[in-house]
Every structure is written in C-alpha cells, then in structure tokens.
Amino acid sequence: MKEKKDTERRLTPEEKEEREEREITKELGAAGLIKNQQNSEFFLVENEGEWSIPVGHKKRVDKTLRDTFFREMKEEIKLDADGIIWLESLGTVFVQKDKNSPKKWFEVIYIKVDAHTAQKLEYSEKGKHLSIWVKRLKAGVLSNLDMLGQKALALYREKYVTRRFIAGGDYDKNGVLSEGDSCQI
Fold this sequence. Notes:
This protein has one domain: Nucleoside Triphosphate Pyrophosphohydrolase. Helices cover about 30% and strands about 35% of the residues. It is built from 6 helices and 11 strands.
C-alpha cells in the first residue's frame, strides 16, 4: 500500500488528473470505420499485434461521442474534417477481449473520405505507426482483425451490402427481377 502512495506522489498533477479521467471513461469510446471513396478501401491500424479500426476513449472535455471521435481521429491519424465526404453512426458495439478484460462500449462512426485525405492519414499513437488500406472482403478475413474491427465491419455489411447479386439482369420499376439470375452471397 505504501508503495502505491509513493508512486502516486511522483505523478504530476496533470498525470494524476489524466489517470483519474481514464478510470472514469475507459469503458466508453468512439471508433472510426474509415473508407476511401475512390478505391473503396478501409483504413486499419495495428494495435498490440492485431489490426483494428482507429479508436479513442471519451474524456471529460467531450460532450458527445462524436466529439470524442473528432478529437481522437485528429490526434491519432491526423484526420481533418474538411476531407470527409460522408459521416454517420452505424451504432454502438460492446467489446470485451476476454472474460478478465474490462467491458467497453464504442460508437462506430462510418466515414467516407476523399482520395487526397486518405493519402494524408497517418497513424501515430504511443510510438506505433503501422496502418494499411484494405478492401472490405480482405479485412473481413484477416486472422488478426480484432473484435471491434469485426463488429464494425458487420454493422457496415448489415447496412450497405446487399444480399443479392444480379448476373446480367436488373429489377424493373415494380421490383421484379428480369433477365438475369440471382444468387445469395
């Protein structure tokens, strides 16, 4: 017990405040599913040996999780709001790495960026700098895609990926499939 007090005395007031804030808000955050509008690739970052989408935890200064998103994305990947073409919330996901790790809730914010903005994105968090752009189908089968990334892609698929593939045909104005075959994907 005494050792803990000694350690706390060495912390600066700013470090103590940051530690307290982290303890209060560590279960709540915002994550960005970022898509390059030009080539339909998604931005992933490396975190502890796994690929993930960029994420940040809520701080007291953030009034909403959208505020958390913009603050964290600017800090971690140099995302400038000017290059955003589309932004929407896909929903909230619950993530827990294993039964001994803390439970966390993240609002997944889906954004499309223009090609110029995509080129400028640069991951920089705690000395880590590894990031990639990858197609959705490839991202979905990465063996080391973390649970948050998997759940974010699942939300995206639910909303934007159709269940039918039309080969050589189309729907008429009444919604009837004409001149083509369909199969489930």
